[in-house]
Amino acid sequence: MSDDALFDAPDAGRSAAGGSLSDAVHGAAPLAVRMRPRGLDELVGQPQLRASGSPLHQLVEGDQSMSLLLWGPPGTGKTTIASILSRQTGRRFVEISAVSAGVKEVRAAIDAARSTLVGSGKETVLFVDEVHRFSKAQQDALLPGVENRWVTLVAATTENPSFSVISPLLSRSLLLRLESLTDDDIREVVLRAVTDERGLDGRYQLDDEARDHIVRLAGGDARRSLTYLEAAAGAAGLHGSDVITLELAETAADQAAVRYDRDGDQHYDVVSAFIKSVRGSDADAALHYLARMLEAGEDPRFIARRLMILASEDIGLADPMALPTAVAAAQTVQLIGMPEAQLTLAHATIALAVAPKSNAVTTAIGAAIADVRAGKIGTVPPHLRDAHYAGAKKLGHGTTYVYSHDEPFGVAEQQYAPDVVLDAEYYLPTDLGAEAAVKQRWERVRRIIRGQRG
């Protein structure tokens, strides 16, 4: 179950798949649970969702039945919104987690919701946490409940639903995008928890330095900020102090958690920044993103594969050793594994970042493919056709072929390309790095091949 599952409606029961919520009403419940917003007016951040007349506002205030897909980073209020929708519309709240529930649990929850609706007329909010972890069959099991409005589905995901949620479910749900919380948002969450009777109830004072430290560590995650605050308050209590100092706050966590989901948008954003930093020759930035991926547990083989692609796509013949370096790194990763492989990946990252850059290879194959797709195919010139079978010579295959090694410089003047692309120039080398020498040779060779010896 994700961290979002910590935020449960304190006045509603859950299905067997999600467990009981009774502990949420007791003081022993985590601070993050106790401080869950009870209405849209208490929701921090997400101004686009809280605005008067917004779709979410209409759903909550108008008591409409509409399924929601909530997409956003952890700790931004996805489960909270489901709880508010349930509380303010008087519906049952049932939660299942895609981490632990299967098709059986999904169908049981929907059947129970249908029975409750028929028996008492009470509707159910079915909250599915981490819906992107459901298989297609599991997501299909949700459709009857959504189509027949036996449940108001609220599904949370940290991944782009366009790639992780089936189309029928997407088309039947309202997609709401949640943004990462700002430092000001987190600061508001922390200060509210210090004074609110559901939180620390004014029992502790929070130093400005300690507050800023907690905000910084939270990294935009409201739940994490409250977890750190609770730990810091606990440390203060053990020391007999009613002031949460920076020193005490530092005991709550020794480092900021890396914001990175190997299967979600953080994954694609960080990888994109990594590749663009190497392409842009900024070795320092590239190493930063490499470190973020490694610390988050990214598969080092994936990183190595991306470097191999980049070696041809962005460097090519400007540095002929770029691809062998990337391939060697990938092989080394396979042979030695982590954590030692991080040195190899850093080695390859720096080498490719500081290498001269050329996308001439990428442009060349792209232009050639474009011509082929445009129908510029043409027939293979007769002298280049296979002449190793009986009757080939009678057809003129290979009879006028000039063997390159018999010619001066090992280059023969003859037609290689089909007539339709005879004058095409796909490979246009740059003057960068080693490709400058390739350019000089290729231009001479091209003129010889095409009989342009002037």
Topology:
Blueprint: H1 31-34, H2 47-50, H3 55-62, E1 67-71, H4 78-89, E2 92-97, H5 103-120, E3 124-129, H6 136-140, H7 143-147, E4 152-157, H8 161-164, H9 167-171, E5 173-177, H10 183-195, E6 205-206, H11 208-218, H12 222-238, E7 243-244, H13 246-250, H14 265-279, H15 283-295, H16 300-315, H17 322-336, H18 341-354, H19 360-373, H20 435-449
Helix pairs in contact: 10-11, 10-12, 11-12, 14-15, 14-16, 15-18, 16-17, 16-18, 17-18
Largest sheet, in brief, is: 5 strands, parallel
CATH 4th-level superfamily of the largest domain: P-loop containing nucleotide triphosphate hydrolases
CATH topology of the largest domain: Rossmann fold
Strand content: 5-15%
- For this structure, what is the CATH class of the largest domain? Alpha Beta
Give the overall form: elongated
Q: Determine the N-to-C terminus distance.
A: 73 Å
CATH architecture designation of the largest domain: 3-Layer(aba) Sandwich
Which radius of gyration do the C-alpha atoms yield?
Answer: 31 Å
